[in-house]
Amino acid sequence: MRGSMLTKLGAGALAGLLLASAASAGELSFWTWRQEDKGQYQQLFQDFNKTSPDVRIGFEAFEPQSYQTVLSTALAAGKGPDVIHVRAYGGLEQFAKAGYLAALDPASTPELANFTPSALGSSSLRSDQRVYAIPFASQTLGILINTEVLEKANLKEAATWDDFLKLAKALKDKGVIPLANGTATAFMAEILTQTMTASFLGPDFPSEIAAGKATFEDPRYAAALQHLIELKDYFPPGFTGIDYPTSQQLFLSGRAAMLVGGSFEIANFRRQNPNLKIDFVAPPAPSATAPRLVSLFYDGGYAVNAKTGNREDALKLVRFMGTKGFGDRFSALLGNISPIKGVAIQDPLLAKVASLNQTSVPYITLVYFRYQDPTGSTLLQGAVQKMMAGQVTPADVGKELTAGIATYYEPFKKK
Amino acid sequence: MLVFAVYPLASSFLYSLYSWNGLARGGFAGLGNFKQVLLQEPFSSWTYRAFTHNVVVFLSLMVVQNGLAFLIGFALLKGMPGHRFHQVAVFLPVVLSTVIVGFLWKLFLNPIFGAVNQALIAIGLAGWAQPWLGQPQTALASLIAVNTWHWVGFPALVFLAGMQRIPREVLEAARLDGAGDLALMRRVIWPLVAPSATIAFVLLFIGSFNWFELPYIMAGLDGSPGGATDVLGLYFYRTAFGAVSSGLQDFGRGSALAVLMFLFIAAVASIWVRMLRRREIEI
User: How many CA atoms lie within 13 A of A44 on its CB side?
Assistant: First the structure.
């Protein structure tokens, strides 16, 4: 306890400054939070070197939790890498708004045409509508199934809510934990909420929220949250104290049959257990006729440092990262879905996820309310944790979320 | 002094007077950032919630950690059987890094795999098994208990050193006058270890209001569950530097919080030290 927090912060800042690279022509530095992808990126950079053999790229990865801090410290000091792996939405905006990222336009970056408007929206600054990064992956929220566990129990995945509850009960009766999720890790509580409420809220609710036609105090929102409470019996014992790594281990070990999570887990789980038999499905719908909706978001992008000393090569690399060839290789090597149009996805499970994206809704709190404090995510995460611990009701969650966002979001003030 | 104390403090105060885009300074904001963290919802509620938790942590540790430390110091002074072993044993956790302690206890308190619940089940107390870190009513208390386990050895040795400075004839005279252990502790040792108490109390006060590493490792930057373990250190960090999966960086509001924390700790600590010094007796 006596160790000083300031020491940590100072060390982080110093690390940022020391590691900041001073690139020269022919040399590029690339910073990311994804240490685990180093080998794959080296292969992708080798592809780049086939057409640009004179550019050497240095890969530097930082711990995900402190990445934003290290990066912003370096950028504020006028340093930082030439090409930056940036997060999307509000995570990008804070860097773009401060002038740290170079704007990309169709003239300098024709590859922007390879992306959908919603993908580019995740890498755009809201105030000037300009794009500041090439989106790198789309992620889908749904349910991961350990198919071996389900087969052993002689059960099949469920399409409707009632069948889903029956499936969960049947699994529990056979001594299997139906859902590996816990709510101790705040962001997983948010992912659980978004995923399992999407089909109940329906395809129009997110756009109504975005347009200010509805708030989170809408009875539909409270009703959707109520379904999370119905799942309490099917989470692991003591689920409010189950953190994200424990959920992953319960799923991987087969002690739990399903995990509500993202498509980003697929590559990670396969790395940990190549023999794992895994499926990814959309969450159950309220009825057999209603659509089963997955939730979609973009993970981040590749940006050019506005103060790079080697803008030409940096832009060359970022443009390469926006080509179909890169997208094909990216999806194959990293097991994530590249958002580049026409990308060929060889892996059957990833191809299935891509097809599920056709019936998707935006991840509401991330896509619309991660730009200003208090963010929708901050508000929702804490409120859902309290709801699942029995401290507040679904209506209270909606009220807290609406009131917090109303401090800066005009349409909510009028409601 | 200028480089290590005055400059960082002055720059924090200066930063708190501006609006920020991440780490890029914007326009002059006056006391706007202070107003936000103290008066504007929901930030003000979060500030008071975090502050209240710091107060609870401080008071709890004063009673549990320092109280236990005093008793351990006395037991070691009396030369309890195996006191040399216990002296090392009680101090051993202090040398461990908070990261290791936090990580280990997080595993011990895991609802499914954790040693604490497994032990309770093994001795027939399955009903007592809890998601210790997942319930608002037990999460903060669990962190306080772990902090006590980690640090109790330090004030125990401080108290022991203070007790060992008391002349043996003073203790023997009290014994001859018929003082039992309780009377000896209350009427002789406690007043005479006042200088040690001053050190232990003030360090605990500063540590409690700068609490960061243990809640960060065990409960996360968000003070899970639902802010039940949120303290000023966590709140400052995620306000200034952002939380990857939820919040944004705001150096202005973060600096305002840091300035308020510094002013509070400096003011209370200096007044309290003066008060504690008054009751110290020269031996």
Answer: 26
User: If residue B195 lies in a helix (H) or strand (E), which one and from where to where?
Assistant: helix B194-209
Tokens of A143: 């349910």
Whether residue B24 and residue A67 make contact (CB cut-off 8 A), yes or no, is no
**Who among A94, A375, A386 is closest to B21 (CB)?**
A94
C-alpha A375/C-alpha A369 separation (Å) is: 6
In terms of Cα–Cα distance, which of A186, A177, A200, A134 is closest to A340?
A134
- For A291, phi then psi, to 5°, come to -75, 150
Q: Which two tokens stand for residue A224?
A: 């959707």
| CA distance linking residue A83 with residue A310, whole number of Å | 10
Tell me the three state secondary structure of residue A140.
strand
Instruction: List the one residue out of A333, A359, A361 whose CA is nearest residue A346.
Output: A333
Per the CB < 8 Å rule, is A389 touching B226? yes
List the single residue in B with minimal CA-CA distance to A367: B246
Q: Which residues contact A167 (CB under 8 A, 6 or more apart)?
A: A155, A156, A157, A158, A178
Which tokens in the block code for residue A338? 């590249």
Q: What is the pTM of this model?
A: 0.89
Which residue reads 């200034």 in tokens? B240
Cβ-based contacts of A90 with chain B (< 8 Å): 248
Instruction: Count A/B contacts: CB-CB distance under 8 Å.
Output: 177
- pLDDT tens track, chain B, 283 positions: 667 778 878 888 888 898 887 667 888 988 999 999 999 999 999 999 999 999 999 999 999 999 999 999 999 988 878 878 888 888 889 999 999 999 999 999 999 999 999 999 999 998 899 999 999 999 999 999 999 999 999 999 999 999 998 988 888 898 888 888 888 888 889 889 888 889 899 999 999 999 999 999 999 999 999 999 999 999 999 998 888 777 788 889 999 999 999 999 999 999 988 888 887 766 5
Nearest to A95 among B22, B40, B110 (CB): B22
Q: Is A75 on the interface with B (CB under 8 A)?
A: yes
B241 Cα to chain A: minimum distance (Å) = 6
DSSP, collapsed to helix, strand or coil, labels residue A225 as helix
Chain A residue with Cα closest to B220: A185
Q: Which two tokens stand for residue B215?
A: 């809640």
Q: Are A314 and A329 in contact (CB under 8 A)?
A: no
Q: Where are the beta strands (DSSP E) in chain B?
A: 18-21, 24-28
Is the Cα torsion angle B244, B248, B251, B256 positive or negative in sign?
Answer: negative
What does the alpha-carbon distance between residue A216 and residue A402 come to, in Å, rounded to a whole number? 6
Question: Which residues from B are below 8 Å from A248, CB to CB?
Answer: none
A346: left (phi over 0), alpha (psi -120 to 50) or beta: alpha
